[in-house]
Predict the structure of Iron(3+)-hydroxamate import system permease protein FhuB.
Amino acid sequence: MDEIRRKQLTDKDIQKRLMRRLSHSHPTAWIFFTSGVILFLLMLLSLRFGAAELTWEMIGEAIWNFDATDTAHVILVDLRIPRVLAAAVVGASLAVSGVIMQALTLNPLASPSIMGVTSGSAFMIALGFALFPQLSHYQLIFWSFTGAALGAGMVFSIGFFTQRGLTPVKLALAGSAVSALLQSLSTMIAIHFDVARDMSFWYAGGVAGVRIESVTVIALIGIIGLFASLTLSRSLTILSLGEEMARGLGLRIGWIKLISLLIVLVLTGAAVSIAGAVGFIGLVIPHMTKKIVGLDYRWVLPISALFGASLLVLADIGARVINPPYETPVGTLTALIGVPFFLFLARKGGRGWK
């Protein structure tokens, strides 16, 4: 009797039952709401603290009664607001990219910074500055997208030349090697074509000096990418359990991987074009989120976006207050968190955080 019932179940019925079983017992809706509140509070703190500390009264006046002759108002509207929005969008984009990459490769060590995607973007930006010194921001985004595709393509192509494919540790090593190669080429181009000063920002990573026009474009790309990833959340959940199971449940794996990879390239390329090489957000945040909310990607993706945004906004605050009036590179602060976490995962053989 059970066998007859099993045969009568469609692939969609099985997928629905599987998704219900994977749903975490924690109140994920409350976690999502709390994460949003924390992000909002961090963004408010980011508006206040910096080289020039603003009071809450100044912030309120600048928002409701902007005066172009008031220095505090100009600092807030022209510098702080674009900066905090950029940090939130970039952090969310990198975190979502990391979630998708780990689901596609079944590799807990996968992330844009480790898989050569970030370095590829920085390499093509260096090449763009060398060939076309007066790059517009839209052209910069295009070069960054191209570089992201180049870096990812180089890493995954190594899999065709290795026995038994790319294991998690092999994939991390391939990504590190490709990243080192592209970073070396970027440095060589920057020195030879005398664009090292332009490239220093992308090497360090950060959101200082971004303009609201650039943030608007990146925010639009980030929102589209996030919603596109949410449409694939059910498929990514099943795919993360293994390709054999996904294929048995009728998923079109090839198309899902192709669309997901395009989302990663778009999100990472956009993030690098505005913030440079900010690393390890796409590694740490997916593990943290899955540890809290479980394996249901319908929750993992949006909560990872909020966690990633919060982490980069917090790192940006730290970059301003650690050594005022000078700024610490944001990439350095994220690396202080990400490198020990990466070594912890590598020591476990790439089995993830249990």
